[in-house]
Amino acid sequence: MWEYYEGKVILITGGSGFLGTTLVYRILQKAPCSHIFLLYRRNLSNLRELWNQWLPEEIVLKMLDPKRVTILDGDITKPECGLLVSNINMLRDKVNIVVHCASSINLVHPLGRISQNIIGATEWLANFALQLTNLERFVYVSTAYTNTHLFHATPEGDVRVKEQIYQLSATPNVQLEWSEVQKKGSSVEYQSNNFPWAYAYAKQLTERLLYDIFSCTGSSHKLLILRPSIIGPAQKYPYPGFSFPLSTPMTIFTAATALWPTLWARISTRYERPETEATNDEVPVDVVVDRLLTHLAFGTTGPVHAVSGGHARQTCKGLSFSLSLSARRLIAPSKSTKYGTAWSGLEEEISWLGG
């Protein structure tokens, strides 16, 4: 598949993040692309310092080779992503592929605070991409948890989510919905559907907005939406175990469990026995990157999941066993307490004992 990338010019946002860094590394390692442009809100020395903390120096030198990579000053939180007019014009003439990885991943902030970062920046980037002289593909990195509202559509504990765009109403008007969010910091659709976090709704609305933008211009065949689950440390590259601090949730949980004798974790589930039925879906970052690059090269359109799958997910009990091995101490879900109905129907509180 790598021959597809020969001579291609790629624009990447979020290239300094955990997923973006792995993506840049993999492209430079395998794909004979012509050039990569990275949108970065700080200067080159900051990026070099960041990568030098987690990557061997020889790899960093290759990833910052000016013959193959150009760092552009930009910020997705600003109008036109903070790009200079001269850079916008240059990109318009050169870029073939846009990969949009940059995004807030805050699960606490309200919709009004994160909407511009997630939805507004993506809208501008999509409209800009459609102005590119030689646009072939636009890739948006979403999340496998963008349709968490579907939990209430079925009595099952494990909800099946298809690789499709889910509308929130019978007569959707995504442009009006987005305008409402911009004006009020919320929308009728957001209030009518039970999302656990504003982040999930923002990603869900972004997917629908992208589909509308590309469909209205007859360009839906250029749009790829990747939905990764919980991203974990690398399996193989840049090296086994590669990760950024605070970028791999299960690693954080492992560290916390090892540091504190008793750790309480509250999970939302309908299962009667969450320790053996509820699961954790983590996929290595390099696996996510390879799925992205493979689907991009082979022309896949619409949403695609990048998840560990039904056979690879870990139960709470299995996770506790893995944590015990890594921490070399007893860590087990020792207590399960039922609570009243909440976002997910029944909440189960599990005490993870480490001692």
Automatic annotation (TrEMBL):
GO MF term list: alcohol-forming long-chain fatty acyl-CoA reductase activity; alcohol-forming very long-chain fatty acyl-CoA reductase activity
Organism of provenance: Penicillium antarcticum
Organism placement in taxonomy: Eukaryota, Fungi, Dikarya, Ascomycota, Pezizomycotina
PANTHER family to which the protein is assigned, alphabetical: FATTY ACYL-COA REDUCTASE CG8306-RELATED, MALE STERILITY PROTEIN 2-RELATED
GO biological process entries: long-chain fatty-acyl-CoA metabolic process
EC numbers on record: 1.2.1.84
Function: Catalyzes the reduction of fatty acyl-CoA to fatty alcohols.
Protein name: Fatty acyl-CoA reductase
A GO-annotated cellular component: peroxisome
A Pfam short name: NAD_binding_4
Top EC class of this enzyme: oxidoreductase
UniProt keyword annotations, A-Z: Lipid biosynthesis, Lipid metabolism, NADP, Oxidoreductase
Domain Thioester reductase (TE): 12-290
Record field: catalytic activity: a long-chain fatty acyl-CoA + 2 NADPH + 2 H(+) = a long-chain primary fatty alcohol + 2 NADP(+) + CoA
Family: Belongs to the fatty acyl-CoA reductase family.
